[in-house]
Structures are given as C-alpha cells and as structure tokens.
C-alpha cells in the first residue's frame, strides 16, 4: 500500500496543533485513523465511481430505450396518422350520410309540420266558429236566465211556450188567451170543451225562485230551507188557482198548472209527492209540456167528434140525396140497356142479311170462275149456271 504524502502532511499539521512532540503511539493511532478514513474515502469514491458507471450505463440504456421508444412512437405516430386519416375519411363519409339523412328527415318533418299546422289551423277555425256559437249560446242562456229571474218575464216565457203548444194543436176558435172571467181575473188560457161544456183553464205561472234556490243549495240545511219555501209557494199557487179560476158553471171544475220543464215536473213528482196530492185534492192537475200536448190532442179529437156529430144530420141528408141520384142513375142505365138490347137485335138482323148477301156473292163468284176457266183455243164448251138450270153453249172460234 503506497503511503500518501497528504497523510504525512496531515499528521504533521495535527502534531503542530498539539503544540509539541507527540508520542509514537498516539501518532500511530492518528495515522491509523487517518488511514482508515482514507481507505473509507477511497472506497466511497470507488463506490461512487461504480455507481456513476452504473448510472451512465443505465443512462445509456435509457437513451437506447428512449431512442427505441422514439422510433416506436414515430412508427405508431405514422400508423396512427394513417389510421386517423382512414378514420377521418370514414367519419366524414358517415357524417355526409348522416347529414343527408338528417336533411331528408328535416324536410319530411317540415312538410309534416306544415300539414299538421294546416290541419291545426282548420281545426282552430272550427273551434273559433264553435266558440262563437258557444258565446252566442251563452248570451242566449244569460238572456234566458234574466227572463227566468224576473217574475213577469218568467211568466211570459212559460205562457209563450204554453201558447205555442195550444196553438199548434187546436184550431182557431177552440181556445182563448188571457180571457176575462166573471170575477175579473184573467187566466193564461181557456180551452173550449165539447158538447157546450164550460172551458178548461190553463195556468202558466210557476214559482221558480224556490226551485232555483233548491237546485243551487250546497248544504243540507240550505236544501231543506229551499224545499220548505218551494212547498209553501206551490201550496199558495195551487190555492190561488182553485180560488180564482174554478168557477161553478163558468169553468171546468179542474184546471191545469203548466210547468215549462220536464225536469222540474219529474223533480216535483219525485221529491214533492205531497204537493202533487194536495193539488189533485184541489182538482189542479200539474202538467209538463208533453202532458199538455197529449191533453190538447185528446181535446182536439173530442172536438172533432163533436163537429162530426153536429154535422150528422147534414151527412144523412146528403146520403138521402145521394141515394136518389143513384136510383135515377139506375133507371137511366136500365133504359140505356134496353136501347142497347134493341140495337143489338137490329144489328143481329143486319148481320143475318149481310151473311146471306155474302153467300150469294160467293155463289156468283164461283159461277164466273167456271166460265173463265174454259179454254177458247180448244173450243171447249162453257157452262153457264142459272137458277132454272144449266145451259151449255158451244163456242166456235172464227178465224
């Protein structure tokens, strides 16, 4: 092992620092320490050198691997570039097809949308017309509600409907509207009865306020109160009709109370049976439009039967005169038949004479035929038939 001069210098510098001669043992120890430090330093340097060589070798390997990786990356980049170009081309082709299909779809959808919009506009026009009709109907309903809310106009509405039914079914003169009775009251209508009977009174006024309140009631208490009010109004109205319009000898002992609605009529008979029975005991008949029409048609049939009975004697006289005319016609036909019989006998005699003349004509014709049938060239004899006999002549042809 070669002694390092730096080690000697180091020991001397250490001795100088100690300030005097150093014992040999201590010097040796220091030298050993320094030697071991140098050995360790060299080992560390060798290790570092080996590590540096290994690191360099690894760096070289890394550079080689990086170079190979770069080559591979370049190859992959080239492959990826070609594949990306193909992919871009395929994507462009697909995008073109998709764009074309989308354009066709959008065009078809646009046409369908326009068609649907056209149909929608037509339907909206129909809806507008229907809305206009509904608005006009709403105005009519409001007007009807205004009519029904007022007693006078409501009475005029019921009376108008009743007058329409009566006037359509009965002939003029079989009824009267607003006639005055002996007690000064004016019923809505009186219908003439057959056989000289007193007329039938029809009242068209109906208490509708309580009924509307009953229909609009939302609680049982309100419905009960409205029902009681309607019952009282109906009883009062039935009593007024019985007292004012049922006059002995002047009107019938039964009167009609006209209800201008089938639903109200059904509701009264369904929920207010006591009112119906009370009206029947007072000889007041509650009628709906259909029942009034049926009753009027029955009265029309009775009036027609009465008119036929009144005209029965006239019809009988006409039948008697018709029989006289038939008798005279029979006599004249018989005389004409006699004339035709005598004329027939004359015609038969004429026919007999014509038959005889025809037979004689035939015989004369046969005679002329035989004379015309002889041949003059041969000098044949011609036979002439007469009534007395036959005469044969010989005819000689002369040159």
Automatic annotation (TrEMBL):
<comment type="similarity">
    <text>Belongs to the RmuC family.</text>
</comment>
<keyword id="KW-0812">Transmembrane</keyword>
<comment type="function">
    <text>Involved in DNA recombination.</text>
</comment>
<keyword id="KW-0472">Membrane</keyword>
<keyword id="KW-0175">Coiled coil</keyword>
<dbReference type="InterPro" id="IPR003798">
    <property type="entry name" value="DNA_recombination_RmuC"/>
</dbReference>
<dbReference type="Pfam" id="PF02646">
    <property type="entry name" value="RmuC"/>
</dbReference>
<feature type="transmembrane region" description="Helical">
    <location>
        <begin position="284"/>
        <end position="303"/>
    </location>
</feature>
<keyword id="KW-1133">Transmembrane helix</keyword>
<keyword id="KW-0233">DNA recombination</keyword>
<feature type="transmembrane region" description="Helical">
    <location>
        <begin position="20"/>
        <end position="41"/>
    </location>
</feature>
<protein>
    <recommendedName>
        <fullName>DNA recombination protein RmuC homolog</fullName>
    </recommendedName>
</protein>
């Amino acid at each position: 092992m070669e002694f390092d001069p730096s080690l000697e210098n180091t020991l001397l510098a250490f001795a100088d620092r100690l300030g005097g001669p150093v014992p040999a043992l201590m010097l040796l120890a220091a030298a050993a320490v320094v030697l071991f430090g140098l050995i360790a330093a060299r080992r560390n340097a060798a290790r570092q050198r080996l590590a540096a060589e290994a690191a360099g070798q690894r760096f070289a390997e890394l550079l080689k691997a990086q170079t190979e990786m770069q080559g591979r990356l370049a190859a992959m980049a080239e492959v990826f570039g070609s594949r990306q170009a193909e992919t871009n081309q395929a994507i462009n082709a697909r995008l073109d097809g998709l764009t074309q299909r989308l354009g066709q779809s959008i065009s078809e959808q646009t046409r369908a949308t326009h068609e649907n919009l056209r149909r929608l506009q037509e339907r909206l026009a129909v809806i507008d017309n229907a809305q206009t009709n509904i608005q006009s109907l709403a105005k009519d309903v409001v007007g009807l509600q205004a009519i029904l809310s007022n007693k006078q106009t409501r009475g005029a509405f019921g009376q108008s409907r009743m007058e329409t039914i009566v006037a359509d079914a009965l002939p003029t003169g079989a009824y009267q509207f607003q006639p005055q009775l002996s007690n000064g009251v004016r019923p809505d209508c009186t219908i003439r009865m057959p056989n000289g009977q007193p007329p039938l009174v029809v009242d068209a006024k109906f208490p509708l306020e309580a009924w509307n309140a009953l229909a609009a009631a939302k609680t049982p208490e309100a419905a009960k109160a409205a029902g009681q009010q309607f019952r009282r109004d109906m009883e009062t109205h039935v009593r007024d009709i019985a007292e004012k319009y049922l006059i002995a000898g002047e009107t019938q002992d039964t009167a009609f109370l006209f209800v201008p609605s089938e639903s109200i009529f059904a509701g009264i008979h369904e929920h207010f049976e006591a009112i119906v029975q009370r009206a029947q005991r007072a000889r007041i008949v509650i009628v709906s439009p259909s029942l009034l029409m049926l009753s009027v048609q029955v009265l029309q049939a009775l009036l027609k039967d009465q008119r036929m009975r009144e005209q029965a004697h006239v019809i009988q006289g006409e039948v008697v005169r018709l029989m006289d005319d038939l008798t005279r016609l029979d006599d004249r036909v018989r005389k004409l038949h006699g004339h035709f019989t005598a004329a027939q006998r004359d015609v038969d005699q004429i026919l007999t004479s014509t038959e005889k003349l025809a037979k004689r004509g035939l015989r004369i014709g046969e005679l002329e035929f035989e004379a015309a049938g002889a041949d003059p060239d041969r000098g044949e004899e011609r036979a002439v038939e007469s009534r007395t006999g036959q005469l044969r002549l010989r005819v000689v042809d002369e040159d």
